[in-house]
Structure formats: C-alpha cells, structure tokens
Amino acid sequence: MLEVKDLVIRYGPFLACDRISIEVKPGEIVGVIGPNGAGKSSVVRAITGLVPPASGTVRFMGQSTLDVPVHDLIRRGLSLVPEGRGLFPMMSVEENLLMGGYSLTNKALRKQLMENCYELFPILKERRYQLAGTLSGGQQQMVAVSVGLMGDPKLCIFDEPSLGLAPIVIHQIGETLKKMRDLQLTVLLIEQNAMLASNVADRIYIMSAGRVQFHDTPGNLMQNPEVIEKFLSA
Ligand SMILES: Nc1ncnc2c1ncn2[C@@H]1O[C@H](COP(=O)(O)OP(=O)(O)OP(=O)(O)O)[C@@H](O)[C@H]1O
Ligand SMILES: [Mg+2]
C-alpha cells in the first residue's frame, strides 16, 4: 500500500534521512519509532510532498506520491494527522470533522463516518458544539484522529499522537489504534513512545540518526535488549 524506498532527505548540507526504506501493507499497523531528531517527521513530510527528497521513491497504491498535490493524495486515500494536531481551534468539534470530510461528495458516507467517529470517541459527541480550542489535550487529539478518519482513508499516518499527553490519554490512544485495527484500517504510526507503538504495531522500524537501524515485530524487538538500550533508552 505504501512503499518508501531508499529515501534521502537533506536540509542544506544536513543529511536528515539516509536511504530510508519502509513498507506498509493493507490492514497493517506499522510503527516508526526513534528519538528526537531521528528524521521520522521528515519521512512523513516527504510522503506528503512537503519536502522534496534528494533521491528515492515513495509509492502509495502503486503510484508515486512525489510531485502530487496534497489534495490529490487525500483523494487517493491518504490521511495525515500531523504533529501538533492542526485543528481549527475557533471551530466546533463537528465543524472540524466536516472539514476532514470535505473532499467526500457522498453525503450519506460523510454522515456514516461521523457516526463512526462518535462511536469511537463518545465524548466528542457530547462536546460536538464546543470549540475545539477549548478541549483538553487528549480530547483535541481525539478530534485530530477523527478528522483524519473523516476522509475515509485507505492509509492513516499519525505523527506522534501521544506527544505531550498524560499517560491515561496515551492509553486511550492505544485503545483507539486497536479499534482501528479491528476496522482493518491501515496505519503508519510515528512515535517516540516505543511502548505505545510496540503494543499496537504489527511491525516496528527503529530510526535513529537518519537511518533505519532495526526492523522486526514488536515481539522480536523485546527480545533484543541491546537494540532497545542502544536506540531507545533516553
Ligand atoms: N526545515 C529544516 N531545516 C533544517 N533542518 C531541519 C529541518 N527540519 C528538520 N530538520 C532537522 O532534521 C533532523 C530530523 O528532523 P525530524 O523533524 O524529521 O525529526 P523527528 O524524528 O521527527 O524528531 P521529533 O521526534 O523530535 O519530532 C533534525 O536534526 C532537525 O533539526
Ligand atoms: Mg517529528
């Protein structure tokens, strides 16, 4: 579904990503974990066309994403929940969700997707007329996830959904991801929180210093304490 191959990203002389290859198959949850500055968000920016790579390829549903405008990627079924959420704070919860579904012409589908989000996060239904900017951090993250789902995506990319959230909310995000798995949604999960990612992902890539340093199942990662020690201990 998503194939990133030998991706190289430079910011001026600085090499942020050095031949990164990552694959996501339909129905999988794939985690990319690693410390601050590893280059994780840079990979996401290249996938969504925000940063042109120096070399390498990105294919989504068999077609290149490079040089494709972001609204076309959304139409093809890519959804990005960026770092820092990107909500409209002065709009209500429901208006934010509608923005997420703007590209859908099928009104019944839009309504159905909204119902799905409210089922996933009942608190958002209660708060649907509240301004998004006045929600708690965890609730805003739920809105961000919902906005992503409102586009009826084939692939959801989450960039650090747990950033700055309390442990209880991080736990809820983990539960949400498990529900997304049950719905057979495909997810690329970027995380610094290795525990969260390992709990929900089918496969894990560890990025550090611009490279993929390790790639395996979470179970096999847990049996490699030296890898955890080397790349994940802060
Ligand atoms: N626009 C830019 N110009 C110059 N350097 C940049 C730019 N964006 C990112 N970098 C550098 O590239 C490296 C990778 O950044 P990136 O945001 O991809 O890391 P990350 O793994 O997402 O980190 P974090 O977990 O902190 O979000 C960092 O050293 C960062 O300072
Ligand atoms: Mg980042």
Condensed summary:
Helices cover about 40% and strands about 25% of the residues. It contains 10 helices and 10 strands.
Jot down its keywords.
single chain; 234 residues; alpha/beta; 6-stranded mixed β-sheet; binds magnesium ion
Using only CA atoms, what is the Rg?
Answer: 17 Å
The tally of helices reads 10
List low-confidence stretches: none
How much of the sequence lies in strands comes to 25-35%
Commentary on this structure:
The protein is of the alpha/beta class and 234 residues long. It contains 10 helices and 10 strands. It has a 6-stranded mixed β-sheet with strand order 6-7-8-3-9-10, sandwiched between helices. A 4-stranded antiparallel β-sheet has the order 2-1-4-5, covered by helices on one side. A hairpin with a 2-residue loop joins strand 1 and strand 2. The longest helix has 16 residues. It binds adenosine-5'-triphosphate and magnesium ion. The site of magnesium ion has 5 residues, from helix 1.
